[in-house]
Amino acid sequence: MKPLAVSAYTVTSALGHGLDAHLEALTAARTGLRANDFSRDALTCWIGRVADVESTPIPDDWRHRDCRNNRLAWLGLQQDGFLDQVNAARDRYGASRVALILGTSTASIGATEEAYRRLEDQRIPPDMREPDIHSPHSLILFVADALGLEGAALTMSTACSSSAKVFASAERLIRLGVVDAAVVGGVDTLCDSVLYGFNALELVSPEPCRPFDRTRNGISIGEAAGFALLERAAARPGAAQLIGYGESSDAYHMSTPHPEAAGARLALQDALDRAGITPEQVDYVNLHGTASQKNDDVEAGLIAQVFPDHTRVSSTKGFTGHTLGAAGIVEAAITLLAMQQGFVPGNLGASEPDPVCGPQFAWRNETRAVNVALSNSFGFGGNNACLAFRRGGV
């Protein structure tokens, strides 16, 4: 495929607001996870909660779309000069020529939970009767208005691969001439449905998650917002580039990955093929690495089979928690940051590496050039995505 320039990007998570906060936490090997102080009945677990979401006001023009998920989106959009970059792209191409593609797994379901808790005579209270809030498209409706965009607008909801697959959709729209640029990203906030849902599946750890540790016992759920602006490479020489992507759906099981990584392997190979690269050329892979038993076992086995010893790999969910529908964009942003700064983030949380892990694993931070990198995102139902990036100027 023809590369796309990543003209701008930003991320807000439990590590902090914006790229500088993330770089500081990553280089200091400091987690953003903390004991659960969100769920109503204090479920015993650790979470990646974003600071200041509740105190972030939605601008008056969009008060009818006020909910925690949209507050986090607005908080995230204001970091790293991202709004200025989007405004410049909108002026350059026209509002109808910039697409908006956002991933989310829960959208504003937290607001719907609140509405049902506050039923009045078995009816949703008047201040919560806003259809846009109780919609899977609440995020895209809010952000399209906030950015003043009038082009193609898509909500991607494929579980944990949601905000990785947005890059693939953007590439297709730009390649086909439907638009000239695209804002991609994802936002998911903490809510009881997610915390108790994953707990019911016996997937939530009572302590900070430990991806790829021999004694790992489940995930830590986080929340995040992340965005990127994609344009044709010629428009932004010197910028980091999206050089490939891969997608697959093995449909092996509702929540368990294929034991032989069939779908993940297809997505990985698809990304390499589109990028025109071999595994030997990949410097770093940001793994999906949720710290669940099955996911880590399958993904580690795939890495050992495909990549040479010198390729470095790690999961960064020990820093942020699993941000669900926002995981793809969060980990893409961390990958881009690692490329820009010349380091590999360590696999935070693991003290006893699982024997299935090969020599590719970076258990601690490493300083090294990262010219080509991949980011894996694997969702429920075997809905997989893999992104390939190249450092700017290479």
Automatic annotation (TrEMBL):
Keywords: Transferase. The keyword Transferase applies. CDD domains: KAS_I_II. Pfam families: ketoacyl-synt (PF00109), Ketoacyl-synt_C (PF02801). GO terms for molecular function: 3-oxoacyl-[acyl-carrier-protein] synthase activity. GO terms for cellular component: cytosol. GO terms for biological process: fatty acid biosynthetic process. Residues 1-391 form the Ketosynthase family 3 (KS3) domain. Pathway: Lipid metabolism. NCBIfam families: PRK09185.1. Belongs to the thiolase-like superfamily. Beta-ketoacyl-ACP synthases family. PANTHER family: BETA-KETOACYL SYNTHASE, POLYKETIDE SYNTHASE-RELATED. This is Beta-ketoacyl-[acyl-carrier-protein] synthase family protein.
